[in-house]
Design goal:
Elements lengths: L22 H34 L7
Length: 63
């Protein structure tokens, strides 16, 4: 039996595994999470820029 997780139920709860963290632990987790999000955002921006660059070299297609 497979369990599929689709990102639901993560939110703040992902920071509270194993009991309530101390202020210091919470800050470390949030800062790490922020770095991960910033990296994901940079990756998305790179893909968007790549797609835009590619589209500029081709005529626009009607959908």
């Amino acid at each position: 039996m497979h369990h599929h997780h689709h990102g639901r139920g993560r939110g703040a709860r992902m920071f509270f595994r194993g009991g309530f963290p101390s202020r210091h632990e919470m800050l470390e987790r949030l800062e790490s999470f922020q770095r991960d999000l910033e990296q994901q955002l940079a990756d998305v921006a790179d893909v968007i820029a790549h797609l835009r660059d590619r589209d500029e070299g081709q005529p626009q297609q009607q959908v």
